[in-house]
Design a protein that fits this description.
Shape: globular
Low-confidence stretches: 170-174
Radius of gyration: 19 Å
Structural class: alpha/beta
Number of helices: 6
Helix content: 25-40%
Mean pLDDT: 83
CATH superfamily: 2-Layer Sandwich
Strand content: 15-25%
Order of helices and strands: HEEHEHEEEEHHEH
Number of domains: 1
Number of strands: 8
Length: about 170
Amino acid sequence: MLMENILLNVDEESVIKYDLKGSRRNRFITNKAKGAVTLDNNFLFDFKSRPIPMQYSMKRLLSIAILNDSMYLSKNTIIDYSMLVVINHNTRKIRIGIIDYVQMFTLEKQLESLYKEAVSREEPTIISPELYKNRFRTAMDKYFIALIPDRDEDLKLLVSNNYGGNKIKWFTKQ
């Protein structure tokens, strides 16, 4: 239901879609079909490992939503969810939403994780809800960054509050 809302009235020809989990293991699609959903490493490659700049207020709202949603999912032992990001380069708009939130961290998943951790030297792909939540939050915080002041925001006040601008000796003519 949520995914249908994210993709409502989307022009498939002018958007790029990413399924972001915060993991880098097995998260690259080499043969991308037109309109296909790509993964974390594709996102990093396409944006040259640079985050998507957002207005400060939008980044705050996104961060709050991610914190609340991931806490809820973690408390309910849900793992393997992703952030669907739909980017339209023509309109310069982004649509985002958490999807695939049906996988529970069951005893079977815990045993699978322990087995893979013992057999493989790589980072396990199945991790506890708490670790999953933390990895997801950290990745989303790196993928999106607040760089664009809000239209009604006073730039001097912004620099003063966020970057200690009131402590800087400004060398300007009076």
